[in-house]
Design goal:
- Keywords: Glutamine amidotransferase, Glycosyltransferase, Iron, Iron-sulfur, Metal-binding, Purine biosynthesis, Transferase.
- Its cofactor is [4Fe-4S] cluster.
- In the C-terminal section; belongs to the purine/pyrimidine phosphoribosyltransferase family.
- It is an enzyme of class 2 (transferase).
- The protein contains 17 helices and 29 strands.
- By secondary structure, the chain is an alpha+beta fold.
- The two termini are about 45 Å apart.
């Protein structure tokens, strides 16, 4: 991989250059939210064979979502790498309070969360002079940070961030955590999620004089904090978050406080742990806690604000919501199997997904294999339930960079072959069940099927450990627009014919909900149903959480392919001729 770019920055409490501020006189603050004690406790089968085919009946009810990209539908490979046809989590966050090696622990925790974002990383700490010190860079965590960089990040208070983004010449300026100075000090923030009212908030802030340096919706949060009239600081965060709509799990850093916030629906995960020396740790997944030997205590609850300072931990209720909508794809694909997410073991969830597929979509076979790595646990579950041996029929290379040199004589399915190698001795002459976590556009699945056939597989039966994806995500997951999703355009039988396998079955949505039992209403299934818990309220909505502009024009409208049209049958705010909205409320 090319050498990484990195920046190191200090932010003193006197810095006022990052934000355009409203300096009007202070107004009476809101009554503080309720303070809790400081001591915290704690289907119907959709499958097809060449004899009997059951087609998918449901399509995205708001299929009029359209991409602004002008490329033809046949040129989908230009959107993503051919060998990486998966939804992608936007990022992972870490926060540490009270450890003298906070930056090094943050570095290790980010390494554990590397699967959540591989294209940028950053850490912010508070040094002995109460100055926020920042190091950010493009690349993997191990490429951005080294011993000398970590030596520049002293202190016992730190936040960190890993991100996924599209490529762009201005990507470095979008790498988090962001740090800004305002009239009462400095603040850093790392954000996982996506705000569905980003354009409205940005338009109002710009009308009032705010200047934006990035195309990230996270910068909106900093401006809202800076322009808030409430005191003290954590109430500024509460005041800002009350204006946000969508998904956000965030950690904030000031000269003496660490604050963790989760949106009222709890779309994205955020957990709290504690090290043996009493240091408090927040992270997107428990796998980060495990690596730095922090004991998992509990989740940050939906709608909760946790403030950590010298007085301990305070819990505040932001905006309670009676029914959380946690992202089910965390259990299907995003999170590591060794994590506990939303109070459930990811490994156990995926194993049961495989068992359900074996029960509801049985087929005579000789061997069960997985598309590594995310399909492995579900394949183990399928094999155990079916009584068929699991073997490694596909070997994944973990040493392939994002760019590679192809010989002048083209190699068929080159990208997939670089990452996946079939084991002929496992496959030749066999009836093979292939378990994968999801099908997005179908291009990678068709290449895998072709790869297995070339290795001598007699029959290939695809089993997908998720329901069909028919709708885009607005809550911090990078998915193609709805018209690119193969399950939104084709029936299960048509998909089977497209990818060329002998049979195809998805995890039934009803069975998934039955597995979750009484917790089922607490999960978001928008990508499977098109029913959004928080409807987009703007004419155009960012398709992914943190789109990077081209470095030449910072206007949101200039971001090619970064916006999709919201459902046309709903009320949306009217924009004046000047392109501004009149109110934050």
């Amino acid at each position: 991989m090319a050498a990484t770019a990195a920046t190191t920055t200090s932010f003193s409490a006197l810095s006022k250059h990052s934000l355009s501020l409203n300096t009007s006189p202070q107004v009476p603050q809101k009554a503080p939210p309720f303070l809790l004690p400081k001591t915290l406790q704690k289907p119907h089968l959709s499958h097809a064979t060449h004899k009997t085919h059951i087609t998918l009946s449901s399509k995205n009810p708001i299929s009029d979502l359209v991409s602004t990209d002008k490329r033809s539908s046949d040129d989908f490979s230009s959107y993503f790498d051919d060998d990486d046809d998966k939804p992608r989590e936007e990022c992972g966050v870490v926060g540490i309070y009270g450890d003298p090696e906070a930056s090094r622990l943050c570095y290790l925790a980010l390494h554990a969360l590397q699967h959540r974002g591989q294209e940028g990383a950053g850490i912010v700490t508070v040094n002995d002079n109460k100055v926020l010190q920042s190091v950010t860079g493009v690349g993997l965590v191990s490429e951005v940070f080294n011993e000398s960089k970590l030596d520049q990040l002293p202190g016992d208070l730190a936040i960190g961030h890993v991100r996924y983004s599209t490529a762009g010449s201005s990507m470095l300026k979008n790498v988090q955590p962001f740090v800004a100075g305002y009239r009462f000090g400095s603040v850093g923030v790392a954000h996982n999620g996506n705000l569905v009212n980003y354009r409205k908030l940005r338009a109002i802030l710009e009308e009032n004089g705010s200047i934006f340096n990035t195309s990230s919706d996270t910068e909106v949060v900093l401006h809202l904090i800076a322009t808030s009239k409430t005191r003290p600081f954590f109430l500024r965060i509460v005041d800002a978050c009350e204006k946000l709509e969508g998904a956000y799990s965030m950690v904030f850093l000031t000269e003496d406080k660490l604050v963790a916030v989760r949106d009222p629906y709890g779309f994205r995960p955020l957990v709290m742990g504690r090290r043996s020396n009493g240091a408090v740790v927040f992270a997107s997944e428990t796998c980060a806690l495990d690596l730095i030997e922090a004991t998992y205590e509990r989740e940050v609850y939906p709608g909760e604000v946790l403030v950590v300072d010298k007085d301990g931990v305070q819990s505040l209720c932001l905006m309670p919501h009676p029914e959380p909508k946690q992202c089910i794809f965390e259990h299907i694909y995003f999170s590591l199997p060794n994590s506990i997410v939303f109070g459930r073991s990811v490994y156990e969830s995926r194993h049961i997904f495989g068992e359900i597929l074996a029960t509801e979509a049985p087929v005579d076979c000789d061997v069960v294999i997985a598309v590594p790595d995310s399909g492995v646990v579900a394949a183990l579950g399928y094999a155990a339930k079916a009584g068929v041996p699991f073997q490694q029929g596909l070997i994944r290379s973990h040493y392939v960079g994002r760019t590679f040199i192809e010989p002048s004589q083209k190699i068929r399915d080159f990208g997939v072959k670089l990452k996946l190698s079939p084991v002929r001795r496992v496959l030749e002459g066999k009836r093979v069940v292939v378990v994968d976590d999801s099908i997005v556009r179908g291009t990678t699945s068709s290449k895998i099927v072709r790869l297995l056939k070339e290795a001598g597989a007699k029959e290939i039966h695809m089993r997908i450990a998720s329901p069909p994806i028919i709708a885009s995500c607005y809550y911090g997951v990078d998915t193609p627009s709805s018209e690119e999703l193969i399950s939104n355009r084709m029936s299960v039988e048509e998909i089977r014919e497209f990818i060329g396998c002998d049979s195809l079955a998805f995890l039934p949505l009803d069975s998934l909900k039955k597995l979750l039992a009484e917790e089922s209403p607490n999960f978001c299934y928008a990508c499977f149903s098109g029913k959004y818990p928080v409807q987009p309220k703007e004419v155009m909505v960012k398709r992914i959480g943190d789109f990077v502009d081209d470095g030449l024009n910072g206007s949101p409208e200039s971001i090619d392919g970064g916006w999709v049209q919201a459902p046309l049958n709903q009320d949306v705010p009217k924009v004046s001729e000047a392109g501004k909205l009149s109110s934050l409320t």
